[in-house]
Amino acid sequence: MYASFRSIGAYIPEEIRSNEWFVNRMDTTDEWITKRTGINERRIASTDENTSDLGAKASKIAIERAGLENSEIDLIICATISPDYLCMPSTACLIADKLGIKNIMAFDISAACTGFIYALQIAQAFIQSGIKKNVLIIGAEKLSSIIDYTDRTTCMLFGDGAGAAVISATDNKDEAITDIQCSADGSFKDLLLTPGVQSEEASFMQMKGNETFKIAVRTLTNDVKKLMEKNKFENKDVDLFIPHQANYRIIKAVGDALKFEDEQKVLTVDKYGNTSSASIPMAINDCYENGKLKSGDMMLLDAFGGGLTWGSALVKFAGK
Ligand SMILES: CC(C)(COP(=O)(O)OP(=O)(O)OC[C@H]1O[C@@H](n2cnc3c(N)ncnc32)[C@H](O)[C@@H]1OP(=O)(O)O)[C@@H](O)C(=O)NCCC(=O)NCCS
What's this model's pTM, rounded to 2 decimal places? Predict the structure, then answer.
């Protein structure tokens, strides 16, 4: 049995927060933010919308586009670093409840911005082992709830949103996900962290931006090269290069090092900022909705985040 990427959906919160919002509140400029990050605006969830609400809305679309009933989903995995509740219940359980799905396995994973790729590989393993048939994977974040809006070096980077995909079993090898590789190195734990229960400080994200930036470029470039070589892929075999959307300069540096053409590179960081685990599925959904992603297209995904964690994947889009 093979795992195939059947559908994509996303939920983009209504409120748009432009760079001007930050300029009016702290010592920064629109020019600095645009030049250093490529971000013009990001979306912010409303006070009555939690991460599970964003995730449930994205999931409904993904399940519908997969041509399935909610009752046919047999596993839900939610990747998030901004769950509704600190330890329990998991956001995946809350999403299941909002979708009216009961009596199946549902759990969260914590792999920061690499969360969606981690969830994809877990889904693939459950399907290839024959244990599950239709796995709903979600990247959902209300990062505005863990951002320190007095830290000008970090706060303008992040936004809220959610994306979801259905990964299904198939016996058609031609539809199968080609390969996924995920890694972690905890010795870099101090680069990106939320002190939370370990500390008297509030549970806000802290980041050493410049160091993270350099390691991200190097690690992502090497990781993607390794995956492409392992699968004997050339750039022309990839239709869309869909990287995690953290910073335009990271995407450009990695894209240039890998020599992808501009038409292959997908960019959404300008309008959504960094939405951590939601950024890749939101970007896939953008491509799907604007007609850039078609059935049978080969996607190359890559991501890097707190942990540190990183990963990349070659995934054929097997949706309609
Ligand atoms: C955060 C980030 C945009 C900063 O860009 P940078 O080029 O590394 O900039 P630096 O941190 O070296 O800071 C450069 C200068 O800008 C200043 N600065 C920082 N934030 C600023 C802001 N919002 N407005 C104006 N100036 C700012 C710094 O104080 C520093 O000033 P100095 O030179 O006088 O000391 C960038 O490092 C980044 O995107 N890092 C990776 C983030 C990331 O991807 N994290 C998640 C991983 S998924």
Answer: 0.97
| pLDDT value of residue 196 | 79
Separation of alpha carbons 62 and 43, rounded Å: 20
- Stretches where the chain sits below pLDDT 50 are none
Q: Which domains does the chain have, with CATH numbers?
A: 1-320 (3.40.47.10)
Q: At how many degrees (to 10) do helices 248-257 and 30-37 cross?
A: 30
CB atoms within 10 A of CB 229: 10
Query: What 3-state DSSP class applies to 17?
Result: strand
244 among known catalytic residues: yes
Task: Give me the amino acid identity at 259.
Answer: K
- Ligand 1 close to Cβ of residue 310 (< 6 A): no
Q: Is the CB of 89 under 6 A from ligand 1?
A: no
Report pLDDT for 203.
84
Closest residue by Cα to residue 80 from 316, 298, 301, 281: 281
CA of 157 relative to ligand 1 center, distance in Å: 10
